[in-house]
Amino acid sequence: MRKVSVDDKEAVLELRSNPIVNRYIDRDPMQTLDEASDFIQLVLRGLDNNDAMSWFIDLKETNRLIGTIDFWKIDKYHHRAEIGYVLHSDYHQKGIMSEAMNAALEYGFKHMKLHSIEANVNPDNVASRALLEKHGFVQEAYFRENFHYNGKFLDSVIYSLLNRYK
User: Fold this and answer.
1) What b/e sequence results for 81-100 when a residue is b if at least 16 CB atoms lie within 10 Å of its CB, and e otherwise?
2) How much is the pTM?
3) Ordered structural domains, the chain, with CATH
């Protein structure tokens, strides 16, 4: 896991334009290097302003970007943040995101002093829900048609994890 770099735009475009990666994210896939550059600048601004914490996940053997994991929607007053993550489809079900999740959760609770971490998941994303539950997240809510994307109202499942490092 490492900090984002402006040199990552091709890899970011590949990751965020992948239809399998985007299947449950409910956003338009990236289409251009300019969009990837804009995304990288957004991530860097979030880091600089202390509004977000983001890591890029590289494959150890090749240093190839294969995923991201981050905290955003950070509520400093309430010591809460939302976690988000994506992983290239070639690396699903290999334990990589679980390893990244362990590191991110430890950082969030121990160093950022978060009290709770939330995850907002598409109900059909069984793998993501299983990952969260494996790491102790508990389903807190099921919101019906609370998200509008591409002309449709979609459901969301909200998970939460309280600080286990107290």
Assistant:
1) bbbbbbbbeeeeeeebbeeb
2) 0.91
3) 6-162 (3.40.630.30)
